[in-house]
Design goal:
Elements (H helix, E strand, L loop, with lengths): L30 H15 L4 E6 L6 H11 L6 E6 L10 H12 L2 H8 L8 H4 L12 H18 L2 E6 L6 H10 L8 E7 L8 H9 L3 E4 L6 H15 L7 H11 L3 H13 L9 H7 L3 H11 L3 H13 L3 E2 H8 L3 H13 L14 E2 L4 H10 L2 H17 L4 H8 L8 H16 L3 H12 L5 H15 L4 H11 L6 H17 L3 H14 L5 H17 L4 H16 L6 H17 L4 H9 L3 H5 L4 H12 L3 H17 L2 H18 L2 H18 L5 H14 L3 H11 L11 H14 L3 H17 L10 H11 L3 H18 L2 H14 L2 H15 L5 H17 L3 H18 L2 H13 L17 H11 L4 H8 L3 H15 L7 H4 L24 H5 L2
Parallel strand pairs: 1-4, 1-5, 2-3, 3-4
Antiparallel strand pairs: 6-7
Helix pairs in contact: 1-2, 6-7, 6-32, 7-8, 9-10, 9-11, 10-12, 11-13, 13-17, 14-15, 14-16, 14-17, 15-16, 18-19, 19-20, 20-21, 21-22, 22-23, 23-24, 24-25, 24-26, 25-26, 26-27, 26-28, 27-28, 28-29, 28-31, 29-31, 31-32, 31-33, 32-33, 33-34, 33-35, 34-35, 35-36, 35-37, 36-37, 37-38, 37-39, 38-39, ...
């Protein structure tokens, strides 16, 4: 089981690898694969990390190639760690990861362990330490995955590392999730990862395996079956070793190749069986070979089993039941043998090649089978009754010995329910341990099995509640089923309310709105007086429905009336009261009521939401309100939320925070950082299988990509947002429709774009939406009409959006509306609108929108013959667009400058203003004395990214080292401070904004 010592993990250091490959004679026709793997190892030594997957059927030689890598990456140059997935340990949380890293942490003593787990790597400590009785049940899967990444960084700093995983198709979900997280971050590491897998072996984790082998970083190798020539050589060699001088006839050789399909393992075991049965290699025996070949391994194992003594057979079966890397003393206990007898049996089983030979023969030394196929043959040679009895005895022995609960639970998964309380206790502890180690998928498996052992209502309640909660974000329908069973069993008030809240949320996500409301309302009605927190939480659930899902008009009006009533009441001091504040703020924001902003700020001001409600809908609503209002508190709070999620949060909480931070960064024009956040969120969604974020995250990413000119990728983002071609019935659909409209417009399809924009507006209005800061559908439709030369139809739409934006008051929405109004009006009036857009946006944090407004104003001034003023405005717009990395806008501005007879100057390439926001953040930390590693950990990027940012900063600032940074960098600029309303009087080319905007 994982957690026990794995053989052959060799940490080492020493002189450089020579690159010389020593090929073993057992490998036939594998030169191409060995060459590819050799290059991978050599590149890793020079700091270019690589990943390879060897895919093929059982016995094709995958394990032999992994063994060959250990010859290539020989000590003392490399640190090599190995692991193997197994059916028995498939649900063991981070089992494969533990096999890889535990021996490395154990070698070198406590000092080395402390060094490897220092800094951010310490977040992975729970994986390698016993879980205490009061272990947390909070989901920390992402924090642990991030800690494992930094543990890998720490190892690679000491020497090049090679990680080898056989049978990765049997790896647990959490370990596969770690590999998907590691892959995009390999380029900076002295690391080579090679995994071996059988195709289509594990349907449950197929999406993760597909991600691993289709990732651009993965070199996929598919060894082919041996040719007749190679097969003949192998068969002749095996007979020559056993019966020297015995001629092998061609027809016999052909039969061997035909019967095994050229599979090396089947060939070897076929020959071994033929030799054991004294079959001579003559043409006359070819038919016997044909019969024997397809079941060669099972027949070979069967022959050996029948010749074993009772003691040897008992030990062989015990090892087959216990799985990989079994301590001999455990196998002896299960077999019922004295340790001395077990040692003798082990030696014999190794001589006949059933068990592999290890480095030692002590009682704690791990033993295992020579090949998983051999182990499976021994296991399945047992009767079902024998297997069940062995697994039950193994579970009892491990539990009595104080082993980790997951080790015993792995055996209980193979047994039918017995309705025994102590078995339920083992499974519940295993689920708790799995959650504490960041493996909710494993926790679900243990809990589902635990249902069979739960015999009392209270036991069933606890198991069902934990199942429903854990499944909430990965399998909504299953979560609903379990919570529906749990709800009537909950008699305690707070417990009943908590389950009702979860169940209603699951029903809402499944678009079963009336059922969700019934659950929440019934729970609310059952609350006794004096429960303000629970009352507020359930009210927040009920009142949030119209913000996310369409509801019948009568039902919607009822909810809105309750929103109005709650708005008049004072805020509650409890967490539930803050939830209610956030939901009411969301309702205010969608209709454009500026009272939403102080309400959201009030809910967030003491930090309790961030501490206790990360990843929840109310906190996300508060962020959304502040983003729509261009408030700096949004980014400040989101930075804290991301930091917290990296350090101690779940994939869900990180995904939510990254999604909204991407939107906030888009608003201020930090496109590079916004795209990085959105792509990290996409990876988290795909790794965890969380689909609920797609309908927001996909459109936000598409928006960012369109600003950067990546239209094909924007289309992919919109396609990714929908898991099927059928549009979902959801109130959030309007986000997707609007981005689709924008993409069609940029693809020069204005008629189709207009239809999509109007559809987005119809969906938004049906949901009660009016605020253009949430969905600027009127301006998008106006732009489409403008491209169709239908400005008279566009103008009312643009002016209506301008009126709504003025009521909301946020600079970005107001400036955008003014810009669009300026585009669809001709002459001086259009120019006046554009001047007001620039005026409104100049001191705002919305730098990209300011650059757009300035670009359009410069173009209008050029057309009006005011070329000098146009050049000045366009030059400033070009600099800002360049800093935002909005390449299409830069090209548009340069075209305008050329049309005005001005040669565009190069984008800012030197000085403090040339630094991107990421470069400046890195430079400021470096100037403060932080090391590259500390900066990388603080900003959640790779050390190589820090190096690249510093190198670029040195070039732009004309310096050569970090000691010179402090002199070049002024105090950090507060670019996200609230924008002051302009008090400048209209100049010669400006008119009163109030009179203009009310036109």
């Amino acid at each position: 089981m994982p957690g026990r010592k794995a053989a052959g993990n060799v940490p080492a250091s020493g002189p450089a690898h020579t690159g010389k490959v020593e090929r073993t004679s057992a490998l036939y026709e594998r030169d191409a694969e060995i060459s590819a793997l050799t290059r991978l190892v050599t590149r890793a030594q020079s700091g270019q990390g690589g990943f390879a997957a060897i895919e093929g059927s059982a016995g094709i030689g995958k394990s032999s190639l992994l063994a060959q890598i250990r010859t290539i990456a020989a000590p003392p140059t490399f640190c090599v760690a190995t692991a193997r997935g197994s059916e028995l340990e498939h649900e063991y949380s981070l089992g494969v990861v533990r096999q890889l890293f535990e021996p490395l942490l154990a070698s070198g003593g406590p000092e080395r362990r402390e060094q490897l787990l220092s800094g951010t790597a310490g977040q992975a400590s729970p994986v390698f330490e016993p879980v205490t009785a009061d272990g947390t049940t909070a989901e920390r899967d992402f924090a642990i995955r991030h800690g494992l990444l930094w543990l890998t960084y720490n190892l690679c700093e000491q020497q090049p590392v090679v990680l080898l995983v056989d049978d990765v198709h049997w790896a647990d979900v959490a370990s596969l999730g770690f590999f998907t997280y590691l892959q995009p971050r390999l380029d900076a590491l002295r690391l080579c990862v090679v995994v071996a897998l059988r195709p289509h072996e594990s349907a449950a984790e197929l999406h993760l395996l597909d991600r691993i082998i289709t990732d651009p970083t993965c070199r996929l190798l598919r060894p082919k079956a041996l040719s007749p020539t190679a097969a003949f050589s192998m068969v002749q060699g095996e007979f020559a070793k056993a019966v020297p001088g015995e001629p092998v006839e061609d027809a016999f050789l052909a039969a061997c190749h035909s019967a095994t399909g050229g599979n090396p393992l089947l060939l070897k075991e076929t020959v071994a069986t033929l030799l054991a049965e004294h079959v001579t290699p003559r043409a006359a025996n070819a038919a016997q070979v044909t019969t024997l070949g397809p079941r060669a391994v099972a027949r070979w194992v069967s022959l050996r089993i029948h010749r074993l003594s009772a003691h040897d057979l008992a030990l062989a079966r015990a090892v087959a039941v216990l799985g990989e890397h079994v301590p001999l003393e455990q196998a002896a206990a299960l077999a019922g043998l004295p340790l001395s007898t077990a040692l003798q049996a082990t030696a014999h089983l190794q001589r006949i090649e059933l068990l592999r030979a290890g480095p030692g023969q002590g009682p704690s030394e791990p033993i295992g089978y020579t090949h998983p196929v051999v182990q499976a043959a021994v296991y399945h040679a047992m009767t079902p009754e024998q297997r069940r009895a062995a697994h039950r005895r193994a579970a009892d022995l491990l539990s009595q010995a104080g082993a980790e609960a997951e080790q015993a639970a792995a055996h209980l998964l193979r047994l039918p329910p017995a309705k025994e309380p102590h078995l339920l206790s083992i499974l519940m502890r295993a689920a708790r341990d799995a959650r504490s180690r960041g493996s909710p998928h494993a926790a679900v498996t243990y809990l589902r099995r635990g249902l069979g052992e739960a015999s009392t209502p209270n036991e069933r309640l606890e198991v069902l509640h934990q199942l429903g909660r854990t499944l909430q974000l990965t399998d909504t329908d299953a979560s609903v089923r379990y919570l529906q069973q749990a709800l009537p069993l909950a008699t305690e008030v707070s417990h009943h309310a908590a389950i009702a809240s979860l169940l209603g949320n699951g029903l809402l996500l499944s678009q079963r709105i009336p059922e969700a409301l019934d659950v929440w309302r019934q729970a609310l009605a059952q609350l006794p007086p004096g429960e303000p927190d629970l009352t507020a939480r359930l009210l927040a659930d009920i009142l949030s429905v119209p913000l996310f899902e369409p509801a019948a008009p009568g039902l919607r009006q009822d909810i809105l009336r309750e929103v109005g009533r709650q708005r008049l009441l004072g805020p509650g001091p409890t967490l539930g009261g803050k939830f209610l504040d956030c939901v009411i703020a969301g309702h205010d924001a969608i209709v454009g009521d500026p009272r939403a902003v102080p309400r959201a700020l009030r809910a967030m001001q003491d930090g309790e939401l961030l501490q206790r409600a990360a990843g929840t809908t109310p906190l996300a609503l508060a962020w959304w309100v502040l983003i729509c209002a261009d408030r700096p508190e949004a980014l400040t709070n989101l930075d804290k939320a991301v930091t917290r999620a990296y350090g101690e949060g779940s994939t869900s909480s990180l995904t939510t925070a990254l999604t909204y931070r991407a939107l906030a960064r888009l608003g201020v024009g930090s496109l590079t950082e916004a795209e990085a956040d959105a792509r990290d969120a996409v990876q988290a969604v795909e790794t965890a299988g969380i689909s609920l974020h797609r309908l927001l995250l996909g459109p936000f990413l598409a928006d960012i990509l369109m600003e950067r000119g990546s239209l094909d990728q924007a289309q992919q983002a919109l396609d990714w947002a929908l898991e099927s071609d059928t549009l979902p019935l959801t109130g959030l659909l309007y986000h997707l429709l609007l981005r689709r409209a924008r993409l069609l417009r940029l693809q020069a399809k204005p008629s189709d774009a207009l239809k999509a924009a109007l559809a987005a507006g119809e969906a938004f209005v049906a949901a009660g939406g009016q605020n253009p800061a949430v969905l600027p559908w009127q301006s998008e439709a106006a732009l489409c009409l403008h491209l169709l030369d239908r400005d008279e139809e566009a103008q009312p739409l643009a002016l209506e959006e301008l009126r709504l934006a003025r009521d909301w008051g946020a600079p970005l929405a107001r400036g955008r509306a003014l810009r669009i109004a300026g585009l669809v009006h001709r002459g001086q009036k259009g120019t006046a609108f554009l001047q007001q857009a620039v005026l409104r946006l100049r001191s705002s944090p919305a730098r990209l929108e300011y650059a757009k407004a300035a670009a359009e104003l410069g173009a209008a001034l050029r057309r009006a013959g005011q070329r000098t003023e146009a050049r000045s405005v366009l030059a400033e717009a070009c600099d800002i667009a360049s800093r935002c990395c909005a390449q299409p806008l830069v090209q548009q501005i340069k075209a305008e400058l050329r049309a005005g007879g001005t040669r565009p100057r190069s984008a800012l390439a030197a000085g403090i203003e040339a630094l991107t926001s990421s470069e400046r953040r890195v430079a400021e930390l470096a100037a403060a004395g932080r090391s590259n590693r500390e900066i990388a950990q603080a900003l959640f990027v790779t050390p190589k990214t820090v190096e690249a940012h510093l190198a670029s900063s040195y070039r732009k600032l004309d310096i050569s080292n970090r000691r010179q940074l402090a002199a070049k960098l002024p105090a950090p600029a507060h670019v996200n401070e609230p924008a002051a309303e302009p008090d400048q009087e209209p100049g010669a080319h400006e008119i009163n904004p109030d009179s203009l905007e009310s036109t």
